[in-house]
Amino acid sequence: MMKMEASFDTEESFDDPSCLAPQAPSSPGKRTTNEVKETKTTINGVTFPLPGEGPEQQLLKPNEWSYCDYFWTDKKDPQGTTSVVGFEVLVQKQLKGKQMQKEMSEFIHERIKIEEEYAKNLSKLSLSPLAALEEGTLGEAWTQLKKSLHDEAEVHLKFSNKLHSEVEKPLLTFRGDNFKKDLKKYEHQLTDLRKQLTSRYAGVEKARKALADRQKDLDLKTQQLEVKLSNKTEEDIKKARRKSTQAGDDLMRCIDLYNQTQSKWFEEMVTSSMELEKLEVERIEWIQQHLRQYTTLRHETDMFNQSTVEPVDQLLQNVDPGKDRELWVKENKTGEVRPVDLDI
Q1: What pLDDT is attached to residue 23?
Q2: What whole-number percentage of the chain has pLDDT above 90?
Q3: Phi, psi of 24 (to 5 degrees)
Q4: Nearest 5°: phi and psi at 6?
Q5: Burial of 227 (0-12, 13-18, 19+ CB in 10 A)
Q6: What string of H, E and C letters represents the secondary structure of 40-87?
Q7: Does residue 37 carry a pLDDT above 50?
Q8: How far apart are CA 255 and CA 343, in angstroms?
Q9: pLDDT for residue 231
Q10: For 181-211, how does the pLDDT look when each residue is reduced to its tens digit (9 = 90+)?
């Protein structure tokens, strides 16, 4: 969008409602350059007060860092060649949030794959025949330890399934494919109003130039009258004055149309930016909710894992080397009679 700087007469008329009345004493057609004080500037079709001019503006939502207070001006891209309107910055924030949400879902998916692979390996290891011949109380503890791996594998498999249904899927499906279309609706509304505003401002500039031309013509004819008095010159001055007055009225009408359009754009900016702010709060709270569900499931997994090793702990406490020796001897003894000395 081309940058359009403010000019002299128009800006003051925004502050002085009396200049909007046709043929009033302060009509643009009757004002001199010395009366004009530039208090505003127009950038890309939007009019702002100059620093230090006019009453201090108050934030619409003080202390909230609300979107509706901080995105009124356009932002230049890093190269400084083109400008991005403030609302577009908010839209890009929404699109970035959507992408971040998708990447979080992908991250959880990778976490699920790790859990599934871990569960698979645990289950496979639990079937290992290694040390299967261990006997006694130690053998019982060892058998329970291998069984605990199978139980732990089930815990991790359930964890991965819950991660999919309660974390990954909600993150992936939150605000589906229509979300970008909905954003476009907001964007189009503001873009159309901004185009109208730019067009209205162009009309103001055209009317201002027309007024300046009519005023110049009137001044010229007035000077001619001072040099040579004639009925024709007086009639020309009357016509020039009427045209100058009409040009002033046209300028005020263009300014009024411009202000109406800017007011409508302002209201739509506030409404739409607040809606995007609400959407961002919902997104953050949604992600927060499901990441907290991740931590809840993780704690549950730890708790269930602990329960799988509790029987192992109990059996390990009951391991008794003396009892194991007794059991083994009873099963494997070869005789209780000891050797004696040989007699002659």
Answers
A1: 34
A2: 74
A3: -70, 160
A4: -75, 155
A5: exposed
A6: EEEECCEEEECCCCCCCCCCCCCCCCCHHHHCCCCEECCCCCCEECHH
A7: yes
A8: 139
A9: 60
A10: 889 999 999 999 999 999 999 999 999 999 9
DSSP state of 314: H
Cα 263 vs. chain centroid, distance in angstroms? Answer: 25
Structure tokens belonging to residue 55: 């009453």
Could you list the beta-strand ranges (E) of the chain. Answer: 40-43, 46-49, 75-76, 83-84
Q: What distance in Å separates the CA atoms of residue 187 and residue 175, rounded to the nearest whole number?
A: 18
Helix (H, G, I), strand (E, B) or coil at 33: helix
- Note the pLDDT tens digit of each residue in 39-52: 899 999 999 999 88
Measure Cα distances from 37 to 11, 17, 54, 208 in Å. Answer: 9, 15, 12, 16
Query: What residues form DSSP beta bridges with 83?
Result: 76
Gap between the Cα atoms of 172 and 107, Å rounded: 11
Give the per-residue pLDDT at 222. 82
Angle between helices 231-317 and 136-163 (to 10 degrees): 160
Share of the chain above pLDDT 70, in %: 88
pLDDT digits (tens, 9 = 90+) for 95-151: 999 999 999 999 999 999 999 999 999 999 999 999 999 999 999 999 999 999 999
Q: Which two structure tokens, joined as six digits, stand for 2?
A: 């081309």
Identify any residues that bridge with 48 across adjacent strands, giving them in sequence order: 41
Q: Is 330 helix (H, G, I), strand (E, B) or coil?
A: helix
Q: How far apart are alpha carbons 172 and 175 in whole angstroms?
A: 8
Alpha-carbon distance of 328 to 135, in angstroms, equals: 8
Structure tokens given for 230 = 């004639």
User: pTM for this one?
Assistant: 0.77
DSSP 8-state class, residue 166: I
Cβ contacts of residue 218 below 8 Å, gap of 6+? 237, 240, 241, 243, 244
Closest residue by Cα to residue 97 from 270, 279, 275? 279
Mean pLDDT, the chain, as a whole number? Answer: 87
